[in-house]
Amino acid sequence: MDYIKIRFGGNFDPTGQNLGKTIQEIFRPRPINPMFSSREHMWTPQMDIFETPDEIMIWAEISGVEKDDLDLEINSRAVKISGIRREMPRVPNGTYRLAEIQYGRFERILYLPSPVDTEVVSSNFTNGLLKIRIAKLKLDQVHKIPISDE
Fold first, then answer.
1. If DSSP states are collapsed to H, E and C, what string results for 86-108?
2. Taking the model in full, what pTM does it have?
3. What does the pLDDT read at residue 6?
4. CA dihedral 57, 63, 68, 70 (to 10 degrees)
């Protein structure tokens, strides 16, 4: 059985200082042809977050990324998915007519809609789709505490 690396804990951005960076990413101009973009450019994979009463599910579309090039970190408030998609070898004597596939590093920090139990997480990576399932914390549970005579 193969495993995806998962790291627990850590504050990804507890003060929200990277909020400005995120807003800049939303509004940054996209290159007309990714072939001419900078090598430092980070691409942004598409992701979905689903929520049920018991869990939160995240699907990340990261085709062309090797499982060994993926990192997954989680704390009770956020999930960080990062990695690298390596560039495909170019065809000798070939001329590009269209180049839309983006390569290089990527990183997404997804803030979760409710607190989660970082001990109850599963993930699988099949056909370029990373699926993560995280159990929600049961906040409305009542614990009965015995009272001693002392």
1. CCCCCCCCCCCCCCCCCCEEEEE
2. 0.67
3. 66
4. -50
